[in-house]
Design brief:
globular; 5-stranded mixed beta sheet; about 500 residues; 15 helices; alpha/beta
Length: about 500
C-alpha cells in the first residue's frame, strides 16, 4: 500500500519542516486565503502555486507568480505531473516531493490556513507554516469558527464521480490537441491555452496582432486537429452581409414554369469560422455575424436556419492604426469571449520558426478530438459548480470596471469612459471553470477568475481622452483593478 505524499523543505526559511499533502487542491502563497501561507520574507507571490491530486498522483501548477515555480531546475509553464524525488522551488523554499511515512517530527513549520479541505476528514483542517522545523499537525475544526463560506466549490456525490470519470477520459485528449498544434506552431503557449478555454466554454475569440505573427495559421491548425467543418472568410472592404450568411436565389422549373426562391447557405454554416482580418470590412458587414455568434442561428427572408453545434468564430484583427481598417462596434466586441493580443516571438522561437519554415520538412497533423467529444467537454464545463465566494468575486471584478460603481478604483474613475457589462461576469466564470478543468481539477477558485480577467475584460473597457492623452493602456487599468479589488471577506456574508 502506497504512503501519502508530503513536501520536505530542504532549504529556505522553513528548512527541515514538512508539509503533508492530505487533500486537494492545496494553494501556496503569501495571502491568508491560501491553503499553505508563506511568510513575506520568502518572496512568494500572493497566490504562487497549486498542488492538485487525482487518482493518487499529484500535479503542480504555477498561478502566474512573479518568481516562477521550478521543478528539477526548470521553470514550469503548464501543470507538471510530480514524481517521487522531484525537487520543487517556490520562491526561496526548496523542497522534495516524497512519501510521507508518518515519522515526521511535530514542530512548527509553514502555516496551513483555516480553509476546509475539499473532502474534509473528521476533525481535520489545513495547516500554516510559521517558521521553525518539523510539521505542524492541523488543529481540530470547531463549530464556533466564524468564517465566510468555502472559497472553492466541491462537486457533490454522484455528480463528482461522473464528472471525474469524464474528465479522466477527456483531459488527455485535450492535452493531445495542444501537443498536436505544437507541431506546427512555435511558442504562443498562452494564446493556445486561451483558445482551448474558449473552445470548452462555447466562446468566440478575437486575436489582435500585426501581420505575419501566425494568427491565421494558428486557427487553421486548430481546425485541422479537430474533426470539425472549417470555413474561412477573407474580410475585405467590398464584402457584403449576404457573402457571409447566404442569399436567396430565384429558381425556375423548366417543366412547369413555376418560380420559387431557394436559400443558398453561406460560409457561416460551419463549425469553425475563421473571420480573417475582420476589421477590414465596414461595420454593416461585421454585423452579419451578430445573430450567429449570440443565438446560434441565421435569419434570412423571414426564415430562421440553425447552426449545427459546436460553432466558433475565431477572428483576426490588425491594429487600428493601419490603413484600411474599421473599428468593431461595441455590440460586436461584446460577443467575443476573449480578446487576445498576439506578440512577437522570442529570439529563440524566431530562430526555430526561420529554420522550420525555410526547409522542406512537412508537418503531418492528425485529428485528435471529434465534435461529439467537444460538446461533451462543453457540458462538463457548464455542470461544474461554482461557490458563492467565487461568483461574488467575479461579479465584483466586472462591476469595478464601471466608473459609476462605488467600488471602482481611482484608475477606472479617471481613465475609463465605459466599463464591462454582465457578459463579462458570465465569461469570467465560464473561463474559470474551463481553467479548472484544464488543470485537472473539479474545484473552481478565485485565482482561476484572475487568470481569465485580462482577455475577458480588455475589449469591454473603453478609455477616455485623459487615458489616451497620457498613453494609458487598458491592460494597465485591468492590472490596477486586479490589485485593488479583493476577494469577499467575512463581513460580506454577515446578514
Amino acid at each position: 500500500m502506497s504512503h501519502p505524499r508530503r513536501l520536505k523543505i530542504i532549504a529556505g526559511k522553513y528548512k527541515d519542516s514538512s508539509i503533508p499533502l492530505t487533500y486537494s487542491p492545496l494553494t501556496v502563497g503569501r495571502s491568508d486565503d491560501n491553503s499553505i501561507v508563506l511568510a513575506p520574507e520568502t518572496a512568494a507571490s500572493r497566490h504562487h502555486a497549486e498542488f492538485v491530486e487525482d487518482g493518487g498522483t499529484w500535479t503542480l501548477r504555477d498561478l502566474g507568480s512573479l518568481n516562477g515555480t521550478y521543478v528539477n531546475g526548470e521553470r514550469i509553464e503548464w501543470p507538471r505531473l510530480l514524481h517521487l524525488g522531484d525537487k520543487i522551488k517556490i520562491a526561496t523554499e526548496m523542497m522534495i516531493y516524497e512519501e510521507d511515512a508518518g515519522n515526521a517530527s511535530a514542530a512548527s513549520g509553514p502555516t496551513l490556513s483555516r480553509t476546509l479541505p475539499t473532502k474534509p476528514k473528521a476533525g481535520a483542517s489545513t495547516v500554516i507554516l510559521e517558521g521553525g522545523a518539523g510539521s505542524l499537525p492541523a488543529a481540530p475544526q470547531t463549530e464556533q469558527d466564524a468564517r465566510p463560506p468555502s472559497t472553492s466549490s466541491a462537486v457533490p456525490g454522484e455528480l463528482a464521480e461522473d464528472t471525474a470519470a469524464q474528465l479522466r477520459v477527456l483531459l488527455p485528449q485535450l492535452e493531445s490537441v495542444v501537443a498536436e498544434i505544437g507541431k506546427a506552431i512555435v511558442g504562443q503557449k498562452d494564446i493556445l491555452h486561451s483558445l482551448m478555454l474558449a473552445l470548452m466554454s462555447r466562446g468566440h475569440v478575437l486575436m489582435i496582432g500585426l501581420p505575419g505573427l501566425a494568427k491565421t495559421l494558428m486557427i487553421r491548425t486548430l481546425a485541422e486537429v479537430l474533426d470539425l467543418r472549417y470555413r474561412r472568410i477573407q474580410f475585405t472592404p467590398d464584402l457584403m452581409p449576404a457573402d457571409i450568411t447566404g442569399t436567396d436565389v430565384l429558381e425556375v422549373d423548366e417543366a412547369t414554369g413555376r418560380k420559387n426562391y431557394r436559400f443558398i447557405r453561406g460560409p457561416v454554416f460551419t463549425n469553425i469560422l475563421l473571420a480573417d482580418e475582420i476589421n477590414r470590412t465596414p461595420p454593416k458587414t461585421q454585423a452579419a455575424l451578430l445573430e450567429a455568434m449570440q443565438e446560434g442561428h441565421v435569419t434570412a427572408a423571414g426564415e430562421t436556419y440553425p447552426l449545427a453545434p459546436p460553432f466558433f468564430v475565431l477572428a483576426t484583427q490588425n491594429p487600428l492604426e493601419q490603413e484600411g481598417t474599421y473599428p468593431l462596434p461595441e455590440a460586436q466586441l461584446d460577443r467575443f469571449m476573449f480578446s487576445l493580443r498576439v506578440n512577437y516571438p522570442s529570439e529563440a522561437e524566431e530562430e526555430e520558426i526561420a529554420e522550420s519554415t525555410t526547409s522542406d520538412r512537412a508537418v503531418e497533423l492528425h485529428k485528435r478530438m471529434s465534435g461529439a467529444e467537444i460538446l461533451q467537454l462543453q457540458r462538463l464545463v457548464r455542470r461544474l459548480p461554482v461557490s458563492k465566494h467565487v461568483i461574488k468575486y467575479a461579479t465584483r471584478l466586472a462591476r469595478a470596471t464601471r466608473p459609476a460603481d462605488p467600488r471602482a478604483p481611482e484608475a477606472v474613475r479617471k481613465w475609463v469612459h465605459c466599463g464591462a457589462g454582465p457578459r463579462a461576469t458570465q465569461y469570467l466564470l465560464l473561463a474559470a471553470k474551463a481553467g479548472a478543468i484544464m488543470r485537472g481539477s473539479l474545484v473552481v477558485n478565485c485565482n482561476d477568475v484572475r487568470l481569465a480577467a485580462l482577455p475577458v475584460l480588455r475589449h469591454r473597457m473603453f478609455t477616455n481622452f485623459a487615458a489616451d492623452s497620457e498613453g494609458i493602456d487598458v491592460d494597465d487599468i485591468i492590472a490596477k483593478v486586479l490589485k485593488e479589488v479583493h476577494e469577499p471577506g467575512e463581513k460580506d456574508y454577515q446578514k
